[in-house]
Amino acid sequence: MTTTVEPAALYERTGHIAVIRLNRPEALNAVNAELSTAVGEALEQAAADPEVRVVVVTGNGRAFCAGADLKELAAGRPVAAPGHPEWGFAGLVRHWIDKPLIAAVNGYAMGGGTEIALACDLVVAAEDAKLGLPEVKRGLMAAAGGVVRLQRQIPIKRALQMALTGDAVDVQEAAEWGLVNVVARPGAALAEAMELAGRIAANAPLSVQYTKRVMYQVAESGSDRDPEWSRHEPWAVNQEAADIIFGSRDAVEGPTAFAEKRAPVWEGR
Description:
Strand 2 (17-22), helix 1 (33-48) and strand 3 form a beta-alpha-beta unit. The protein has helices at 33-48, 70-74, 112-119, 146-153, 156-165, 171-177, 189-201, 205-217, 234-246, 249-259, and strands spanning 9-14, 17-22, 54-59, 101-105, 108-110, 122-126, 130-132, 169-170, 182-184. The strands form two sheets. A six-stranded mixed beta sheet has the order 1-2-3-4-6-9, with helices on both faces. Strands 5-7-8 form a three-stranded mixed beta sheet. The protein is α/β, with parallel strands linked by helices. The chain is globular, with a radius of gyration of 19 Å. The protein is built from ten helices and nine strands. It starts with 8 loop residues before the first strand and ends in a 10-residue tail after the last helix.
């Protein structure tokens, strides 16, 4: 009898939205090399597909992601995607794509799970989910972006409290701190994330992509994916992107559709 082994991450596209599902529910979607590879390849697929405008990342089962698979680490096996160190943890935390990433956080999202959420552009979390960086409780460090990104996204004293205690933070508190964009009822994180993704996907894709790129590129601290970005002069970066956007076909279509009182038909160019 042949046993079918499911991929460690699943990929599907609905309209202009791609959904990546971490798919090791029996291990609370803990990250091993197979999951990192599957997620990294899914992001590459989404980036290359002109029909995809937004990507949603979520977890199958009762957890978003429990972090690194400690059994794999204890056995001396790496959890990174072989051949792709540039992708970072889970094939995602250092993997830049221009299209917006939304984390739909369901359930447990501690350690690496929180670091995946920090790496996404927007976060929708169920009110019964838990976020936190407990690495210091295990003699470790949140090295997959936790200590790099956290203080860039919330006030540093909040970040230090969270990272130095290792304590879990409930979603309502995380939202007040600025870590979560939308608080969803239990079981509704993915639905709320899809609704948010739909509102973004309705906009001109080229405009969305360059808006994301410029906002990261001119951030005061530079991009956490590409430190070279911090060396660029902000207004020069802004003008370069504006020249591309205002010279696009979509920049003609948007005002035309408005004047004609109809929905725009975006070409992404």
